[in-house]
Amino acid sequence: MASSLRNLQSKAGQASQFVAKHGTAYYKQLLEQNKQYIQEPATVEKCNLLSKQLLYTRLASIPGRREAFSKEVDYVKQLWKNKQDLKVEDASIAALFGLECFAWFCAGEIIGRGFTFTGYYV
């Protein structure tokens, strides 16, 4: 246990050294590549305008999202009606999706408890 902790500390130290060495260059490169998205001048008024645009754009996209969701639900209903024609690939994709939903639920529960594992004694 102690050796794995030292190993983890060593790797964390190496990662922080790498970030300290290359972080500034990466930051400048990232800004240069995405300069078309940078709003000049960056004023409070402009930031408020952009946040309102984002909010109302997202609100305007809700009907389209709802329509796409209803199409997906209709597709699943159709699959359920014809479950005898269900292929192994479709069943495995559905099982993986269910497993992923369960994993996200478990992760959310752990995060909600403050990253504590209840019922386990370590």
What characteristics describe this protein?
single chain; 122 residues; mainly alpha; 4 helices; 77% helix; flat; proton transmembrane transporter activity
Commentary on this structure:
The model has no long low-confidence stretch (mean pLDDT 87). The protein is an all-alpha fold. It is built from four helices and no strands. The chain has helices at 2-33, 44-60, 62-81, 88-112. The protein has a domain at 1-38. The radius of gyration is 24 Å and the shape is flat.
Order of helix and strand elements from N to C terminus: HHHH
> What's the quaternary structure here?
single chain
Tally of alpha and pi helices: 4
Mean pLDDT: 87
Radius of gyration: 24 Å
Coarse shape: flat
Instruction: List how many beta strands DSSP finds.
Output: 0
Can I get a quick summary?
It is built from four helices and no strands. The chain has 122 residues and is mainly alpha-helical.
Topology:
Blueprint: H1 2-33, H2 44-60, H3 62-81, H4 88-112
